[in-house]
Amino acid sequence: MKLLLRFPGGVRCEIVSARGALSRAGRWIRGLVPGASRAAVLSDAHTRPYARRLELSLRRAGISAASCRLPAGESHKTGATLSRLWEAFAERGLDRHSCVVIVGGGVLGDLGGFAAATYMRGIAAVQVPTTLLAQVDAAIGGKTAVNLRAGKNLAGTFTQPRGVLIDPDTLRTLAPRDYATGLAEVIKYGVIRDAALFEILERSASKLAARDPALLGSIVNRCVRIKGEVVRRDERESKLRMILNYGHTVGHALERASNYRLTHGEAVAVGMAAEARIARRLGIAGDAFVERQDALIRRLGLPLRAKLPASAHPRLAAALKLDKKARAGKLRFVLPSGPGLVRYPVAVDAKIIFEILPETLSH
């Protein structure tokens, strides 16, 4: 699959999804960034084997490849790591004609994308997502960010990568928990935009859990097209792109309150369960939808409740109040009425939110 996204000002992002694409990446990147003679290849301990293959492909295409290995995990997505990355770019001789190739999941993509967007006031970036979460969501759309102590993704930019290269073969080696975390975003797409996808997930949950290659490849491509179309129509999240935040308002707060012991997908799954219940309380969704979504989340190995000690509840409340979508003291939600149907933005009183949250928390 090939998808070209065009944005104002002549900005383009090419997305390619194909099995075995990683081995052919060098020539493709040479075409995307024709003036580049040097690239920094970012990876962590989990993605280093893929990065080595990509570096070899770059060298065959005449691009000097310098390795930048970063620590894995959300706790390292900080300003301190960002600063070290800028220094590494300078030490490796990157200039305005160089590019940054990011091989990994959402954390690396956010951090590396932000570093590329701000080094020398912006150099080219190419995303090579190796997790399901990154392939269907995080690598597409140009959001880059680091976390602050106060909350997740509070410092960042909207900067499109030159390209996104998806090789579904990388999903075969994902740990079960990492694979499940990506399935939360897949469920999200079925709720916000694609009722047929939601029904496919219901019918094929066991095959998807088993990582059936044909099914998984088609679902990845379907999600990529949805995200690509939404981002193309609303790059800066003025309205339509807000739908991509379904489950994330509560989810991001849960991640922060748990000190990131919950994965992003686990937190989003619980967030979707909570936000569907808020929709039910407001008369937007009915019992039938809440029960269907709960059943699908369970079948795909994701939680409906987050284990959070009572001592962490003040952190949860503080994180919710700092949500980027809050206005005039009220949180704005994307709330579902059924598969493929959502209302947004819906301002919700804090009293309702904190009445619903205990239904999705456990000690």
Task: Write the topology of this structure.
Layout: E1 2-7, E2 11-17, H1 25-32, E3 38-43, H2 48-60, E4 64-69, H3 79-91, E5 99-104, H4 106-118, E6 124-129, H5 132-138, E7 143-148, E8 151-158, E9 163-166, H6 176-192, H7 195-203, H8 205-209, H9 213-233, H10 248-257, H11 264-281, H12 287-299, E10 306-307, H13 313-321, E11 331-338, E12 341-348, H14 350-356, E13 361-362
Parallel strand pairs: 2-9, 3-4, 3-5, 5-6, 6-9, 10-13
Antiparallel strand pairs: 1-2, 7-8, 11-12
The CATH architecture designation of the largest domain is: Up-down Bundle
Low-confidence stretches: none
As laid out across the biggest beta sheet, the strand order is 1-2-9-6-5-3-4
Helix content: 40-55%
Tally of discrete structural domains: 2
Mean pLDDT: 93
Rg on CA atoms, Å: 20 Å
Q: Return the CATH class of the largest domain.
A: Mainly Alpha
Number of helices: 14
Element pattern in H and E: EEHEHEHEHEHEEEHHHHHHHEHEEHE
CATH superfamily name of the largest domain? Answer: Dehydroquinate synthase-like - alpha domain
Largest sheet: 7 strands, mixed
% residues in beta strands: 15-25%
Structural class: alpha/beta
In short:
With 363 residues, the chain is of the alpha/beta class. The protein has helices at residues 25-32, 48-60, 79-91, 106-118, 132-138, 176-192, 195-203, 205-209, 213-233, 248-257, 264-281, 287-299, 313-321, 350-356, and strands spanning 2-7, 11-17, 38-43, 64-69, 99-104, 124-129, 143-148, 151-158, 163-166, 306-307, 331-338, 341-348, 361-362. Helices cover 45% and strands 21% of the residues.
